[in-house]
Design goal:
This protein is an alpha/beta fold. The chain has 2 domains: about 1-165 and about 260-335, 3-Layer(aba) Sandwich (Rossmann fold), CATH 3.40.50; about 165-260, Rna Polymerase Sigma Factor, Chain: A (Orthogonal Bundle), CATH 1.10.1740.110. Helices cover about 35% and strands about 15% of the residues. It contains 9 helices and 10 strands. The protein has helices at about 110-120, 135-145, 165-180, 195-210, 215-220, 230-245, 250-260, 285-295, 320-335; strands at about 1-10, 15-30, 35-40, 60, 65-70, 75, 130-135, 155-160, 270-275, 300-305. Strands 1-2-6-3-7-8-9-10 form an 8-stranded mixed beta sheet, with helices on both faces. It has a two-stranded parallel sheet with strand order 4-5. β9, α8 (about 285-295) and β10 (about 300-305) form a beta-alpha-beta unit. α1 packs across α2 and α3 (about 165-180) packs antiparallel against α7 (about 250-260). The protein starts with a strand and ends with a helix.
């Protein structure tokens, strides 16, 4: 674990962020090929974690896993604009001496990738074996292939589409409106993220879109206690849980950055292996595959799951082997050349 300073960063908007830092996890084989892991909306840099505190992707990354830490060096950054150590709305603005809060500038996915490229250079990394991530992380993986094809040998975008669809934009709009229209939000100068219902509601909107109706129906049905249905209690709990650990201004910054995602017209030269998941309301395979068919070198897999969009965070046995195979197939091809 650590932080890396990259100095000033010129954003796509033309604004300049000063004294930018990215928090990161770096583990695995120190002399092995480097894999960059990109987390999703509310994730963080603790992808692999430890035996005592497994990371959020420990089912995919770690000793003996598809991203084998005995073979690869694995790096994960807390995204720019996040709230787990990287420069974001909770950071001190060096120009004003005050916390940014809602004064933090809007970001794009490209801004995040540019920041991580500079951070990797600072860490002494000259080449990436692959960039892998799901959802927001998948957006970043695609942008890595578009912006830095000379720096990464391949990309593995999961649970993502080449652009953020109208349906996905609609869900983000609901979440943004729920936060910004809550009087307790106070234009970003709230007392604490856990204090206002708008943030709770924004999270529940997301939770409903991340998993399939079948999963909700099978898990909850119409079960209830004397006060509410179990599904209501579950969603309320998830909203409160996120609000205790995540900053609402960061949530807004990242949602709006996701809205900017669009590589629809890009032709990416590095090998691509993409995984889509059935019942993914936000990033359906039928929006991804036609784009992949136009790329120079792309393969894909569709995983049958009731988990929908959250498929990239679970049921690793269904798809991690394909990721492992792609990483080693790419090695064999390069060796043959």
């Amino acid at each position: 674990m650590g932080k890396v300073s990259i100095g000033s960063l010129v954003l796509e908007s033309g604004q300049v962020l000063e004294r930018v830092e990215l928090a990161y996890e770096r583990c695995g084989n120190p002399s092995g090929p480097v894999i960059l892991v990109c987390h999703a909306l509310t994730g963080d840099q603790h992808a692999v974690g430890s035996e005592e505190n497994p990371g959020w992707w420990s089912g995919l990354a770690g000793p003996g896993k598809a991203l084998d830490s005995a073979e690869f060096q694995i790096i994960t950054f807390n995204v720019l604009g996040g709230c787990n150590g990287s420069t974001g709305p909770l950071s001190l603005n060096p120009v004003t001496g005050k916390t940014y809060r809602s004064d933090f500038p809007l970001l794009t996915i490209k801004d995040m990738v540019h920041a991580e490229y500079l951070a990797l250079k600072k860490l002494g990394i000259a080449k990436l074996k692959a960039v892998i991530g799901g959802s927001l992380g998948g957006m970043k993986a695609l942008q890595w292939g578009a912006l830095y094809p000379y720096f990464t040998e391949s990309i593995i975008p999961l649970a993502v589409t080449p652009s953020f669809s109208g349906y996905a934009l609609a869900f983000n709009h609901l979440a943004i409106q729920a936060i910004e229209n809550d009087p307790v939000f106070r234009n970003g100068y709230y007392e604490g993220s856990s204090d206002f219902k708008g943030f709770h509601l924004a999270r529940t909107v997301g939770m409903i879109s991340y998993r399939s109706g079948k999963l909700f129906n099978d898990r909850f049905g119409r079960s209830a206690n004397e006060k509410k249905f179990e599904v209501e209690a579950y969603l309320d709990y998830q909203g409160q849980k996120l609000a205790r650990r995540f900053d609402a201004n960061s949530y807004l910054i990242l949602l709006k950055a996701m809205n900017s995602h669009d590589v629809e017209q890009q032709r990416i030269s590095v090998p691509i292996f993409s995984v889509s998941y059935t019942n993914d309301l936000l990033y359906p395979a039928d929006l991804m595959i036609p784009w992949l068919e136009e790329q120079e070198e792309a393969k894909w897999k569709i995983v049958d799951t009731d988990f929908g969009h959250d498929g990239f965070l679970t049921e690793f046995g269904k798809w991690s082997g394909a990721v492992r195979e792609f990483l080693h197939e790419d090695q064999r091809v390069r060796a043959a050349r």
